[in-house]
Amino acid sequence: MSVAIIALLAGLLLPALSLVKRSGQTTRELAAARQLMVAYSAYAYDHNGVLMPGFYRLNGTLPAFDEAGNELTGERATRYPWRLAPYLDYNLSGLYLDKHVLSELQSQPLNNYWISVVPSLGINAVFVGGDYQAAAMADPNMQRYFGTVHLTRLSQARHPPRLIVFASARYSGEDLPGPLPGGRPFMEGYFRVDPPYVASRKWKPRYDPQGKDLEFGHVSLRHHFRKAVIGFFDGHTGSLDEAQIQDMRHWADQATSPDWTVKLK
């Protein structure tokens, strides 16, 4: 009888413990998003209100440095983690949901590269700050046809409380020549999240936890009730569910409908 009671209690406790663990992960990621938004805003204030590009051009003119003060070049300098590192006192531990991931990345031969690729939260670079790679909407050649679709200054935002800057992200590494660190099939993190629409629909309509990361724009609905943690433009943090995060009014400040797309000038 006692064995049966213990088994019953264990069956009742396991779901509750799982929920507590997930709630703790959400709390940690909300804190990381809040920390990122403080750093993101501080960067803009230090640059006369100009927003940090989410992905800058290779060999660009914006400097980035590692924790030893060494200037970074190439792809390591194109992504946001090392550009925001000075505003985080070079303590990047909060950017990784799993506390063991950062130490594993630091042990990689290309550690600064990997640290820049897979932070837990990705940036909405296409519409906030500019992205010189994905969709190339920050490229001057594209702007001839579509205009400037991304915010470049703090003062330009008309709807800051609803606008995504950072969101929970994931990465399968399918476009890499080698495997992800640790042989993982996924990393719960990526430096970029892509919007559901640009000039056309990009996402699949339903989220698949086992699907390819680009099917849902690298967004990871890893939190309870399939939600992603969000850092919003006005500095507050929260979460959006599967339906809410597909609304383009959360992605583009000028969007007027959930299925808004970029149009030719």
Description:
The chain has five helices and four strands, in the order H-H-H-H-E-H-E-E-E. The chain is an alpha+beta fold. The protein has one domain. A hairpin with a 4-residue loop joins strand 3 and strand 4 (237-241). The protein is globular, with a radius of gyration of 19 Å.
Output the helix-strand order: HHHHEHEEE
| C-alpha geometry | globular
How far is the first residue's CA from the last residue's CA?
Answer: 75 Å
- How many distinct beta strands? 4
Spatial order of the strands forming the largest sheet:
1-2-3-4
Number of separate helices: 5
The profile of the biggest β sheet is: 4 strands, antiparallel
Helical amount? 25-40%
β-strand amount: 5-15%
Rg is 19 Å
pLDDT under 50 segments (min length 5)? 16-21
| Average pLDDT over all residues | 86
Instruction: Please give the domain count.
Output: 1
Estimated structural class: alpha+beta
TL;DR of this structure?
The chain has helices spanning 2-46, 80-84, 99-106, 111-117, 140-146, and strands at residues 121-123, 164-168, 227-232, 237-241. It has 265 residues and is an alpha+beta fold. The protein has one domain (2-250).
Ordered list of secondary-structure elements with their pairings:
Elements: H1 2-46, H2 80-84, H3 99-106, H4 111-117, E1 121-123, H5 140-146, E2 164-168, E3 227-232, E4 237-241
Antiparallel strand pairs: 1-2, 2-3, 3-4
